[in-house]
Amino acid sequence: MEADLKLKLEQLHKRVDALKDQINTEEATKNAFVMPFIQILGYDIFNPTEVIPEFICDIGTKKGEKVDYVIKKDGEPILIIECKHWKEHADAHNSQLHRYYHVSKARFGVLTNGHTYNFYADLEKPNIMDEKPFFTLDLSDLKTSSLKILENFTKQGYNLESILDSAEALKYIKAIRNEFEKELQEPSDEMVKLLVSRFFDRPLTSSRLATFKEYTRKAFSNSINESISFRLKNALHINESVPSKELEQITPIHENTETPRFITTEEEMEGSQIVKAILRESLPASRIAFRDTQSYFGILLDDNNRKPLCRLHFNATNKYIELFHNGKDNGERKQLASLDDLYSYKAELLSTLKHYEEIKIKPE
After folding, report:
1. CATH fit for domain 2-178, picks 3.50.50.60, 3.90.1570.30, 3.40.47.10, 2.40.50.140
2. Cβ–Cβ under 8 Å, residues 274 and 264
3. DSSP assignments along 310-330, one per residue
């Protein structure tokens, strides 16, 4: 079921990207993007007892207030959905969803702009929707863990107990991760004092604290680097005792830098291995080099900047492969719905390689 769900959501993402520039209203966003999503979850959008559009939620003296959709199962509301225009943020700040949630009797609320879906519950106070979502689904970034959670919201797999059991963990794990990432970028005084107090028994003056802040930042950076290098070595089956030129090239943080300029992501590593597997049909691994930059992840022939085989642009919401036809400086970008799409460009990659092999380029 998970594979089928992923395939349908990937197709929806392609639809959203293809049509969004022609969608000018919130109503059009609902019809073109949100209704297909509800259908993918298995609910009958043509059954008014199961998927109810413009559901009336009377709030105190306010009569006739409407929520965009209410989904019912066995006659009971399980999910309310409020929609925004695809250009708006799916943020519950100043959203009517808070008010609708209070009177709807549904345990979960969703705020969406058609490509991002934020799921809310009442983990903080009963019957009052939390300020922050416990789960976010981004159609452009379909993680396996997200698909497993979403399965519990499908008509076939709806499981209230399972969702409630994991909702609190999801909410607070996300919050802790956000705080942790802030500390990695800029260690707080509290974090530095906590760590340093475990091995430094002298008073921390302001100047000492500033020094240890720099040490902490560098320690975090080195730790991330080593973790990335270790995982990459395993992926490339490189012997730990042999220095690797490729690893030196791909390492995003150098020893003499105080803070990381960029970090090679798991997706970039996985994507580079797919490209490498394609090229290995015609080329030894020693001639394939990697270089990470702030704007793209480059894959080069013979570690030569004038011989780019392709570039992976994975740092934005939409992901692209940049192809180089006949060795031209300006490549052609092709959008990727998933990493598997890289295999579709095998012919182009091998053609670029063949071009470089047929001509003689002066070394840099």
Report:
1. 3.90.1570.30
2. no
3. EEEE-SSSSEEEEE-GGG-SS
**How many whole angstroms separate alpha carbon 26 and alpha carbon 112?**
11
**How many beta carbons lie within 10 A of that of residue 244, not counting itself?**
16
Separation of alpha carbons 321 and 49, rounded Å? 45
Q: Is 153 helix (H, G, I), strand (E, B) or coil?
A: coil
Interatomic CA distance for residues 130 and 92, integer angstroms: 9
With a cut of 90, say whether residue 13 has pLDDT above it: yes
Tens-digit pLDDT profile for residues 181-221? 888 888 999 999 999 989 888 888 888 888 888 888 888 88
Q: 37 with 12: CB under 8 angstroms?
A: yes
pTM reported for the whole predicted model: 0.54
What does the pLDDT look like over 316-343, one tens digit per residue? Answer: 888 999 999 766 667 889 999 888 899 9
Delimit the domains of the chain by residue range. Answer: 2-178, 182-227, 265-358
